[in-house]
Write a structure and sequence with these properties.
By secondary structure, the protein is mainly α. Helix content is 50%, strand content 11%. Strands 1-2 form a two-stranded antiparallel ribbon. It is globular and about 45 Å long. InterPro entries: ArsR-like_HTH, HTH_ArsR_DNA-bd_dom, HTH_Metal-responsive_Reg, WH-like_DNA-bd_sf, WH_DNA-bd_sf.
Length: 105
């Protein structure tokens, strides 16, 4: 059953999903349209089991949905608003110090 969540909780779920580089790559690939785990694995140079595990996380966070086509499962971004927001986010230019990662203060 799908439930309504507070805005903060929804943002936390998105943040959790985006915190992993592989999940970001999968979401970016899904911006081009629905895809199957095998195709995503090939395109991204990952194992199918790795992609499936990340898709499971993204599905649990509510960011992707699965559609069954016979024995195959097709994944897509769960909401058009989310897809639009992700497209906007990938165009953001951040003013950061020349470090590889964010460091705790």
């Amino acid at each position: 059953m799908v439930t309504c969540e507070t805005r903060e909780s929804a943002l936390a779920r998105i943040g959790r999903a985006l915190a992993d580089p592989t999940r970001c790559r999968i979401l970016t690939a899904l911006l081009d349209g629905p895809a199957y785990p095998g195709r995503l694995a090939t395109e991204l140079g990952l194992s199918r089991s790795n992609v499936s595990n990340h898709l499971s996380c993204l599905r649990g966070c509510g960011l992707v949905v699965a559609g069954y086509e016979g024995r195959q499962v097709r994944y897509e971004i769960a909401d058009a608003h989310l897809a639009r927001a992700l497209r906007e986010l990938v165009q953001v230019v951040l003013a950061v110090e020349p470090r590889d990662e964010c460091e705790p203060a």
